[in-house]
Amino acid sequence: MSDIDLGLLAQGPHAELIRALAEKCVADDAIRAIWVGGSLAAGRGDVYSDIDFRIAVEPGQIERWVSPDWARYLPLHPAGGQLLRFGAQALLHHMVLADGAIIDFYVQDTTQQNFEPQVVILACRDAALRTTLEGFARPAAPLVREIDGAVVRQFLVDYWITTHKQLKALSRQYDHSAFAGLYMERMALLRAWYMQATGRDIEARMSLHMLGALHQGLAGRLTEQQHDLLGLPSRTPAETVAVIDGIRAEMAAVGRRLAERHGFEYPQALEAVVQQFWAAHKADAAQR
Length: 288
Hints:
Elements: H1 15-26, E1 31-37, H2 38-41, E2 51-57, H3 70-73, E3 78-85, E4 90-97, E5 102-109, E6 120-124, H4 127-134, E7 144-146, H5 149-171, H6 177-198, E8 200-202, H7 208-218, H8 224-230, H9 237-262, H10 268-286
Parallel strand pairs: 2-5
Antiparallel strand pairs: 1-2, 1-6, 3-4, 4-5, 7-8
Helix pairs in contact: 5-6, 5-9, 5-10, 6-9, 9-10
């Protein structure tokens, strides 16, 4: 396994660092295969992309990778990292190296499968294992999809239930909780605007890939008033109440338009209950 083939990675970002990583790892006979996944393997990476570096070892060897001698395997010192366990057969070290590069150093045994959109095999000691690794490449779940009326209706139901809980936190004077609550409110609003602007739905789970798709769909399409709504201050309970009022009004309007356009029943009864309860108690929650 002395020959290392970077393939398309040779002309991409982090090529020198990936080669140095591979050269160090290939010197350990216990490592049966080395490959790269993620956005770099898919040809979409840039200098800010994580290096999704993978190795396979024989079954029963995972525990020795819980705290390895990184000087043996990394060309640069890790400034800090996190360990994630995936049962007894795999683990991941998420690390920031001394030059600022982020590496996901994933270790699995040769019996495990780790599907991802694309893989670039740098080196492998066994032809059968190489075939297995090549089979790891599977299409990624789409971030953007056609609108399903039932899904969007449930999204709106979930929104009104979630925003209803804002009053609980405010009335108990959990003022710092408002920042977490408003994050969820704003993300819901961005998703609703995305559906309105593009006619398609987007993955709800926040990730950098999701944010990239969200930006692409909304770039140049938001009005000045919409940008202002996203940026309203929430330094005090009174300001927080004003932000919630603004987002709720916009969600109600966009939600009704989506329901009309895509043929589902808007959860009007739920909104009415939430808004009535809010109107009765928000003045007290806004005062300190």
